[in-house]
Design the sequence.
């Protein structure tokens, strides 16, 4: 009986090793797990050879799926353009997280490897001789290195897309009606401004925080801010780009959003 039990346990374990699953999480949504056998039904596998950065440049071949195909399958094609989801997080089986900007991942050349073609059972990589199975994100371009902010996570168990509103909750105009100018302004702010500007210390750090410690519209006149957003280059030599492509309406909506965010902090007014 014990032998039988062992046999069952052992083959059960083997099956999991041969058919590992990738778990996908979309924002706050429920996780969905796809075993390799299911990925294989929808995706085309490629053999990819490249000079391996974690094996001293040794020529190496893996079998894998294009990263774009995997992300299309998990999140739909809109993952490439949807400004609400600026980041993708790869979580390794040991919990290690690697965060990648969506704009980096849209580059071609990324593959999710699921087999080591040269050495079945996976050659271990890196200084610590880590086992990269079951899924390893690799890049074939010579400039697609970790130094250039391309992520190379191995032993991936989970891929999640991060929603901007979950990452920067302080930027959300809570209480503003759906479809209001404040909400529309927030949409433009997320797409055009948040990468450089923070609201209450959440967001980009290239430009000043526009709400902390004081809201910009509490110490600058609306017409000045309006003109500055349109053409900062007319006022200063600055790193802020001109925004000639925004409509008058969009700039008013941005101002409504900024004003709304300040009104929540009554002490400014
Ligand atoms: C590439 C980065 C970048 C982007 C994108 C950007 N800004 Fe700026 N912004 C800056 C920097 C840097 C400054 C401060 C330095 C300066 O004024 O030259 C600034 C300053 C400002 C100021 C302050 C002006 C003042 O009175 O001091 C406002 C308001 C502003 N930005 C609004 C916006 C809005 C709204 C957007 C989106 C439509 C935006 N910015 C997009 C970089 C950026």
Sequence:
């Amino acid at each position: 009986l014990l032998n039988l039990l062992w046999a069952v346990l052992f083959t059960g374990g083997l099956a999991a090793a041969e058919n590992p699953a990738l778990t996908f999480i979309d924002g706050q949504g429920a996780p969905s797990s796809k075993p390799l056998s299911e990925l294989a039904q929808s995706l085309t596998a490629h053999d990819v050879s490249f000079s391996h950065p974690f094996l001293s440049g040794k020529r190496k071949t893996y079998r894998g799926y294009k990263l774009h195909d995997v992300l299309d399958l998990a999140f739909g094609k809109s993952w490439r353009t949807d400004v609400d989801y600026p980041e993708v997080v790869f979580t390794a089986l040991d919990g290690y997280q690697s965060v990648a900007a969506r704009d980096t991942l849209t580059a071609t050349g990324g593959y999710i490897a699921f087999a080591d073609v040269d050495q079945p059972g996976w050659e271990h990589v890196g200084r610590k001789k880590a086992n990269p199975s079951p899924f390893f994100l690799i890049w074939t371009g010579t400039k697609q290195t970790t130094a250039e902010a391309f992520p190379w996570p191995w032993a991936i168990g989970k891929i999640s897309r991060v929603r901007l509103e979950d990452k920067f909750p302080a930027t959300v105009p809570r209480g503003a009606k759906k479809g209001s100018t404040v909400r529309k302004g927030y949409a433009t702010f997320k797409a055009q401004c948040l990468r450089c500007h923070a609201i209450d210390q959440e967001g980009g750090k290239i430009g000043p925080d526009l709400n902390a410690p004081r809201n910009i519209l509490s110490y600058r006149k609306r017409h000045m801010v309006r003109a500055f957003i349109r053409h900062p280059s007319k006022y200063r030599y600055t790193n802020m780009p001109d925004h000639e492509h925004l409509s008058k309406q969009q700039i008013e909506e941005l101002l409504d959003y900024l004003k709304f965010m300040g009104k929540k902090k009554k002490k400014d007014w």
User: Anything to note?
Assistant: Residues 192-193, 195-197, 206-208, 210, 216, 220, 225, 228-229, 236, 238-241, 243, 254 surround heme C (CB under 6 Å). The chain has a mean pLDDT of 92.
